[in-house]
Design a protein that fits this description.
Elements lengths: L3 E6 L8 E6 L2 E7 L13 E4 L4 E4 L1 E6 L19 H11 L8 H13 L2 E9 L7 H12 L5 E7 L10 H10 L4 E5 L8 H15 L2 E5 L4 H17 L6 E4 L9 H14 L1 E5 L10 H7 L3 E3 L16 H12 L4 H9 L3 H6 L15 E4 L4 H7 L5 E4 L2 E5 L2 E2 L3
Parallel strand pairs: 1-4, 6-7, 7-8, 8-9, 9-10, 10-11, 11-12, 12-13
Antiparallel strand pairs: 1-2, 2-3, 5-14, 14-15, 15-16, 16-17
Helix pairs in contact: 2-3, 5-6, 6-7, 9-10, 10-12
This protein binds zinc ion.
The site of zinc ion has 6 residues, from loops.
């Protein structure tokens, strides 16, 4: 029996409108509307006619920090100084008074982004000697409260450094026991001043525990570029190709052209992915260069209304617009590369075995009133319908009752 039939869907790459048959939470078949599929028996199926609207695979936020958010809470004017170390210190000083990490704020944000068509997130959760793994537990509680709406995977994130904060290595491993699946890192040189120490610790644990690695690398210029080599060499040495990512990777935008291309080739050869958020004035990787050279690029919101800044709303179509705009691209096929960062690129980063608008994939879909993916990116329309695991979870920007 068909569980859900989505009629008259505009599917990228297919000329005719399609009917999408969803069974047991997965896409069972796609066929041109009115041609192949038998009419469902009356009363046996839910049928949704999307009247020619565009259907995209469920959006993925591959880098956010839902443990830090103040979403649904008080408006807190920004109070940090201008440097990375200032923001870290500001957060350390204020988070407890503001009730962070808050499972309620995290859950409110996750519900909000589910209405925007995001069906999976990878969120970096602070792990440090002050908090221990309380943040991991808080996000796990929030994730449990939105089960069936959005899938949540956690990175154990040493925001304040690894080596310079004794006990953090052990806490990162404890975070894996508490449910995290990826080890984070942060500027092994710029924050820790011990790049070999941080990276050797992360890779040893990841290899032994079967975890992935995703490192915030803000270090610029030759210092950042040098750490690309340290990461890619270890990725190959430990056999972790396809399981390692660099987030932000500001160095790519702050080195000469020939050096940038060398770094991109290092990533391609070692299977290390990149994640960009295209926030503020942070350099944004070239979607064209990375696609041409075969490097996976994924997108994330980074901070959403937190002590790091007031911006962000979790809208991954809007994030794709920022990436496209900051790349200066105008052609449909190039704008679609930006959207790919929040769909197929992110799915590759996360190692999802089955994803997309294909039979067998989980039925995670978002429907928008657009004619092409590029039009969706530039217009950022209200999401008409969000389907998670074959169930309609949101309509016209609002959650539907379970
Ligand atoms: Zn981040």
């Amino acid at each position: 029996m068909t569980d859900l039939l989505v009629r008259k869907a505009r599917v990228p790459g297919r000329a005719e409108l399609q009917d999408v048959v969803i069974r047991d939470g997965r896409i069972a078949a796609l066929a041109a509307t009115g041609t192949h599929l038998p009419e469902p028996a009356a009363g046996s199926d839910e049928v949704v006619d999307v009247e020619g609207r565009l259907v995209l695979p469920g959006l993925i936020d591959a880098h956010c920090h839902v443990d830090k958010t103040l979403w649904s809470g008080p408006w807190v004017p920004h109070s940090a100084g201008p440097r990375l170390v200032d923001r870290i210190a500001n957060e350390r000083g204020r988070r407890t008074d503001l009730g962070l990490p808050s499972p309620e704020y995290s859950a409110a944000l996750l519900r909000h982004i589910a209405t925007l068509g995001t069906t999976r997130v990878r969120t970096h959760t602070d792990v440090d000697p002050g908090l221990g793994v309380a943040g991991i537990e808080a996000v796990a509680k929030a994730a449990a409260s939105v089960e069936g709406l959005i899938d949540v995977e956690q990175v154990a994130f040493p925001q304040d450094g690894v080596i310079r904060r004794p006990g953090t290595v052990e806490l990162l491993e404890a975070a894996l026991d508490a449910g995290a699946t990826t080890l984070g890192g942060i500027d092994p040189a710029g924050v820790d001043d011990d790049p070999l120490g941080q990276l050797d610790a992360l890779f040893e644990i990841a290899a032994r525990r079967g975890a992935s690695i995703d490192i915030h690398l803000h270090d610029t210029g030759s210092l950042g570029a040098w750490q690309f080599g340290l990461v890619t060499q270890r990725t190959i040495a430990y056999g972790l190709q396809g399981k390692v990512a660099l987030s932000h990777a500001d160095a790519l935008g702050t080195v000469p052209d020939a050096e940038r291309l060398r770094l991109i080739d290092l990533l391609a050869e070692s299977g290390v992915a990149l994640v960009t958020a295209a926030v503020y004035d942070v350099p944004v990787p070239s979607v064209l260069e990375l696609a041409e050279r075969g490097v996976t690029l994924a997108a994330g919101s980074d901070g959403i209304r937190d002590l790091w800044g007031p911006y962000g709303n979790g809208d991954m179509i809007e994030r794709a617009m920022h990436i496209a705009y900051r790349n200066g691209v105008r052609r449909d096929e190039d704008i679609e590369l930006a959207l790919d960062c929040a769909t197929h690129g992110a799915a590759r980063l996360l190692g999802l075995e089955s994803y997309g608008l294909v039979p067998g994939a989980p039925a995670d879909l978002v429907v928008v009133p657009s004619r092409t993916p590029a039009e969706a990116v530039v217009s950022r329309p209200t999401r008409s319908l969000v389907i998670k695991n074959g169930r309609v979870v949101a309509r016209d920007g609002q959650l539907v009752a379970a």
